Amino acid sequence: MSLYGSMRTGVSGMNAQSNRLGTVAENIANANTTGYKRASTEFSSMILPSGGGNYNSGGVETQVRYSISQQGGTSYTTSSSDLAINGGGFFIVQGNGGENFLTRAGSFVPDKDGNLVNTAGFKLMGYEYKAGADPTVVVNGFDGLTEVKLKDEGLVASGSTKGTMEANLPSGAAVGDEKPTSLVVYDSQGNTRILDFVYKKTGVNQWSLEIRDRSTYTAGPPATGVIGSQSMTFDAAGKRISATPATLTTTPINNLPGTGANLGALTIDTTKTSQLGGDFTSTGGGIDGSKPSKMSGFEIDKEGVVYVKYGDGNLIPKFRIALATVQSPDRLLPQSGNVYSQGTDSGVIVTGFAGSGAFGNIQSKALENSNVDIANELTSMIEAQRNYTANSKVFQTASDLLEVLVNLKR
Predict the structure, then answer these.
(1) Burial label, 70 (beta-carbon count in 10 A; 0-12, 13-18, 19+)
(2) Are 281 and 216 in contact (CB under 8 A)?
(3) What local confidence, expressed as pLDDT, does residue 51 receive?
């Protein structure tokens, strides 16, 4: 049996080296594939029971492994939709059949419908911002995910909802003195409205603030057009120590004259108001919202928030890219298109956002290169060739000896 066993062992060795050569060929072919992860062939011995002075040669078994957890180098581009993950995690993408996969290949471009699609045709998935609220991730599944779509919707306007007003109130002002400033805000149709902020000294270290809609305000009595008010108290150092109410929220203004638009309730942050010597100064202020403008591009930050950029310079968050990971990334199942699906040994898929937990940051205008080292692959190819030849010699020698044995009977 040992001659037959030697031939079988030689065949086993040649088959193992063929598998190794196959992974080397695949690695070299994908050396320039974005996000590709190197495959390698691991060997283990196969021993057969022997006894009674006879030796049964065994063979060798192979298992293909993927270095999915090993990050490749980074190359930089000029496209804002090219994305790389610096750290752990995978992009979640969806195929044409609606099935979700994981990938590190972030070479995305908008298709005709505005969906961000990578080279293999998989759509990038994320969570949509609704009413400006930061989306909530579903940790243990893909529920709630939608295609990241950046389609030009023509002119778009957004109403103001929150802002800030910072001012220094002169400590030497007399009781009853008023100090005005103003802020431009946007209604639901993008029309500009002017709100006057009028500060009035009511006592020592005491001021009141009224927010007036300039187009409807009348002094009265009774006064109309006052949409918000707040009382402030300052300490001896001029720092604001209290305010009533603590959060300044205006009342909505519906059916603005001449339009069907409305100005919703505004939350105004006044915490940086001070009372110091010198003149009254408005030290800063701002408001969200925008007038009608056309989409001019988009930006993606390191936390995966996708902002649509409009002609007026405003950035509006539209989507947040979702990332996913598993306990054992190297046990994921590779699929065509440089994507991976969950395997029985990979662990449960956990989703989250970039920059949190085990997830790395997202880098725009960058791509993750293949983690293939061509020099190592060429070395492995030469070794596979030599070992295949050596195993073929074993098979040939055993075959020749078997022929000698058969000829003895003749």
Answers:
(1) exposed
(2) no
(3) 67
DSSP string, 331-383: GSEEETTTEEE--TTT---EEEETTSTT--EEEETEEEPP---HHHHHHHHHH
Residue 132 is classified by DSSP as T
The values of phi and psi at residue 156, to 5°, are -135, 140
pTM, full prediction: 0.74
d(CA 229, CA 166): 15
Give the C-alpha separation, 381 to 400, whole Å.
28
pLDDT tens digits, residue range 316-327?
889 999 999 999
pLDDT tens digits for range 121-179: 999 999 998 866 788 888 888 999 999 998 877 788 888 999 999 999 999 999 999 99
Is residue 398 within 8 A of residue 3, CB to CB? The reply is: yes
Of the candidates 93, 96, 72, the one whose C-alpha atom is nearest the C-alpha of residue 84 is: 72
| Residue that the structure tokens 């701002």 belong to | 286
Look at phi and psi of residue 238 and say left if phi exceeds 0, alpha if psi is from -120 to 50, else beta.
left
> What is d(CA 300, CA 83) in angstroms, rounded to the nearest whole number?
9
The pLDDT value recorded for residue 41 is 94
Q: How many residues does the chain have?
A: 410
Asked if residue 346 lies in contact with residue 326, where contact means CB atoms within 8 angstroms, the answer is yes
In order, the DSSP letters of 216-278 are T-B--SSPB-EEEEEEEEE-TTSBEEEEESSSEEPPPB-S-TTSS--B---EEE-TT-EEESS
Give me the pLDDT at residue 1, please. Answer: 52
